[in-house]
Amino acid sequence: MPKTTTVEKIPADEPTRPAAGTRGSSRKRNTKAARRALRVAYRTRRGMAPLYAAAAQAIAGSVLAMPDDGWKTALAATAAGAATTVAWGRWNGRIGKKRLRRRLPRRADFIAAASAVTTGGGLVTAMAATGGLQPGHSPYPGLVAAWSLGHGIYWWRRGKKTAAPVPALSQQMQLWQDNVACPDGSLPGSRLVDVVTTGYGWTGVVICKRGNWRKAYAASADIAGDLDLPEESLQIEKAMGQSAKRATIAVFNVNPLQEVIDHPGPQILDKTTGQAKVGLFYDGEPAHYAFWKPSGPVHTVVYGATDGGKSRFLDMLLGTERHNGIVSWVCDPQGGQSLPRWREAVDWYEDTAQGGLAMLYAVRTVMYERSARYSMMEFVDHKGRKLRGRDHFVVDDPDPLISVTIDEAHRVLNLQGAPALVLEIIQMARKCGIKIRLVFQGPKANMFGNAPESTDIREQAQSGNTVMFRTASTLTDSIGLPGWDVNPSNLPMYWPDKTSTAGLGYIKGPDNRQAMFRAYFDRDPAHWATTGTTPTVEASAAAVTGKAYSERLERLAARLRGETPVLPDDAFTDGPTDAARRAPSTDPIAQAAAAIEAEAPAGTDEKVAAFLAERGRPVGRNTIAQETGLTVSAVKNALTRLKNKGQAVAVDRGIWAHPDHANTTADTTELADAA
After folding, report:
1. I need a surface site. Which of 136, 372, 423, 655 has the fewest CB within 10 A?
2. pTM of the full predicted structure?
């Protein structure tokens, strides 16, 4: 049997153990409390900064009091802090021309910071020199508390003033999130920011989640549907100067452009920049049109359907030119009906397409005369150097700017040789101080003459100012404003109150905004046409233009007397010179009038009516034409007019009779001829 040894344990011999579940609990609690205190201190670091700074002063003063020369360290730290504060408050942050900081702190902040650093450093230095904080035996605890309270009041008041309130989500933003930015909305994941309420509705900035601002523009109609708005009440355009993801949105309760904007007068032109304020965008910002820029004049093309506002826009530009020393040459091929106020108010006015072609030949002559003169001209550049040969145009130094306006320009460009002439002028005339302004119904190729140069003319003209009022076809929107996501053909003809939208459109100019604008409306263009003096070209230019220019006033006087003026022999230098081409009767309007007059001379109706009465029975149109010596077309038109007057009756197809003989039987020969 094995031997068993029994050992008796004494409780005092065993080490004391903590109760179950309590091992290290005190140490853990202390660690957690310290971490919690650090987190609270970090979260309250801004508001409690003065108290933390006071505690740091007390600790620093006590620590630096231990060594004998600790006060020297405190003094050096105070000096360094003061120097840093001065640099922070007074150095503008420039190294050469490079600016390192946007702005200096406010004067009050600088004074408060300098006071805190110097007085606080002085307290630490004094404590280091006299034995530390010494609670109960020195005034330092009270001084530290006073320092903390004094600077803390300024700190807390400043923080209260600058703290920005957290804005509540606006109604527009909430609607956007719920309807547009939602997964099944028109722009999923997008954001609406910077919402501002305006007098006409509200504006904001759309930030697309993917893609660029064109994605927002393309979804304009869907966004209007998501927001339960009429499509015409919403405008989206590129956010200028911001990220490509951002688009500006404007929502109208009432379109601000609906009210007619009166033309303020010729002072709209800023002669220092060459730009004129010609209207307003929907947000009230001015729309600019460039007459010239430092490199020379700016060509222009204007598009717009009937009643789009082209003529009133031209009235405004011509009035601005007349009262700002710009020479205006105008061609109105519609017989002068589009721009009648300027017939006697500009330097040169032509009211036929042939006259416009003669004007273009004169423009080219002036262009080469100026070019030859400028190439040898002496001038002083911006650095004070005297140079020869100027490669750019300076307005009124020494010659005035010449602005050539051709309304219904397709009438002129359809003439033989005109497209090549216009392209030559557009490409070369800017350096010579000549600008071309072409006006069309639309930007189709046939408007530019259907010539090899037509596309080049359109591209060159559209590289300057392009003004596009309401057009008639969606197919031409991208042609008139290439690269722009706008649709002038969708502009309404009438506002909801049934008033005209004339002058509403888009303008590609110095602003480069793809947004609707409305041109100023000149209610009284005759006022600007009859006041002031008419600017004219310089003598050297007038001398080379020939009789087409020198006899312009005689032709105008003849036109006012009701006569038909004839262009001189030299009107088409280097071009066709046959008399038929020079005669204004070859103008389409004159041709049509002459054809009607030749086809239906005076007394045609009376002659046909007398023939029917004498014939005594129904007769065919061909017989009437043969017997009277008139054309069949003239007889047909005369019979229609007589029928409306009750003086002729159509008894059968092509068979006519006097009302008294309508019941008489026609000859079988007449019936056969009519058939």
Report:
1. 136
2. 0.60
